[in-house]
Automatic annotation (TrEMBL):
It comes from Phallusia mammillata. Residues 356-580 form the Concentrative nucleoside transporter C-terminal domain. Residues 253-351 form the Nucleoside transporter/FeoB GTPase Gate domain. GO terms for molecular function: nucleoside:sodium symporter activity. The chain crosses the membrane at residues 72-92, 98-116, 142-164, 170-186, 198-222, 252-273, 285-308, 328-350, 412-432, 439-459, 525-549, 561-584. The lineage of its organism: Eukaryota, Metazoa, Chordata, Tunicata, Ascidiacea. The gene is Slc28a3. This is Sodium/nucleoside cotransporter. One of its GO terms (cellular component) is plasma membrane. Pfam families: Gate (PF07670), Nucleos_tra2_C (PF07662), Nucleos_tra2_N (PF01773).
Amino acid sequence: MNDEKGDGHRVEMEMCNQDVEKGEMEKFTPGSEESSSTNSLGKGDGLLNRILLWPVNTIAPVVKQHLTILKYMFFGLLIAAYFVYLIVAIVYDAHAAIPLIILTCVVLALVFYELFSKRFYKLIGAGIRNVSSVSKQRSKKALNWVILLGCLAFIVWLLVDILMRNPSQLVSLLGFVIILCVCFWGSKYPKHITWRPVIWGIAMQFIFGLLILRTAAGYATIKFVGDQVATFMQYTEYGSIFVFDNFKMHYFAFKVLPMIVFFSTVMNMLYYIGIMQWFIGKLAFLTQITLGTSAIESTVAIANIFVGMTEAPLVVRPYLADLTKAEIHSVLTAGLGSIAFSVFGVFVGFGVNSVHLLTACVMSAPASLVVSRMLFPEREKSQFLNTDSLKLQSGTDHNIVEAAAAGASMSIGLVANIAANLIAFLALLAFINATLSWFGAFVGIQGLSFEVICSYIFMPVAFLMGADWEDCFLVGQLFGMKTFLNEFIAFESMKPYFANRLNGTISKFDANGTLQFMSERSEVIATHALCGFCNISSLGIIVGGLSVLMPTRKTELAELALRALVGGMLTCCMTASIAGLLFAESDPVAMSMSTTMYTPLLNTTFPTNTT
């Protein structure tokens, strides 16, 4: 009975629900009062929307139809406005507008190159195809003879010039030759060395070194660029002051390291826009057609100028798994044998000359390819012989604000890594020095330390690079600290010597015979020798980073790691030897290095934190 009552109750409830639903539906059927009021509101809204959207609906098709013309008009107006501004600036103060004029000329040259380079190359290619094979061979032989005679003439001129200026600089030439011999004798496959990348790589280093170290215009240009970069990095203080307020008591942590955050942000924005890919691609193309190295080697070597050793391979990430062993060795050597712009501000903060930092950055690219191609010659056929076959990776950010935020976030690991390494290695250095001093005391040796041991080990290296004999002990010590600890500790140890030399009132040796500062030439050589990430900790970082990017090649990475570390050290020594060979303190350029000041494009004063 209860079941029957329950079933009846459920049936009644279902019927009631159906009646309710039917009633609700009737409210909105055509003809009902509520339905008609709703439709009238909808018609009103639709009419209002049509009225409001009429301008958009009218203009949008016209804009879409003439979008290209409108784009050209917009950019044309921007360009016209800029040139009006440039003319006003020149009329207002022509001398002050010189940097603006130079910047405009550079941009125009790049634009015209981009517009007409492909057409120019096509014309050259068509002309070459029309030349007979016999004429090609004759032209090639003639070109080879011209290059050979030019190299011989340059060598003779350089030797005569050095003998007239300062014969002791020939020691750097001896060191350079010894480095090449070490690369040849230590080569994995000496019979397979191709000499084109070696000769062209050396030539590019000498050309760049001569332009900067022997010409006032070249030095002034790089000095100007270095000053602008250093001034630009000073804008980090705005963020540091706001976050840390008075940070002068903790200069390195709150002033120097935040520069890396700022630079990483800017670089990621440039990657998002595509400027960095364009710039790296053009320089890689120049390197590839001159040195004859593969597209991967050239691109990564150039990328290492701008970004760190673990970030540079990301530019060619899709192709890393297909590299030959020689290309992997080149990637490792290029990363370990150079520094990046990301730490430029850090080293400038230590007092390092920005010109020599920039020079070392650029010279290290061809130098690393020379050393790598000699230590581990190519025996396989690369799949990437031409830079046109590469599509450089760009960021996955959706807009420039996201790119800026991502760049700042990416720098956290680098900043933390630098800070942690400095804490660990400085503590380790103090422990090692205390231990060595304790053992030395038992045999009557006072002051035995890791730095002293490094000085004696690397004194011959410093001498062969061209450092003055009285400075070799210190240069060897710094080079050893860079190799066994890291370059940050070495440059930080070098900081007081920079300050003492620039002071001008301090004698070179104190009353106890302790060296107070180095000669300017030794300083230049030491700066180039220290501009590299070739140390034990960095080797672990780059091998670990590449193992993630190319997990199928872990065996080759482990096999090539130590050889690449030696290659990075030889790269730094090579650039230092060339700098020692070309630099002369008697030059007007050299004499003006400590006194000549160039007005920066960017001037800033920093407010105090009032929050």
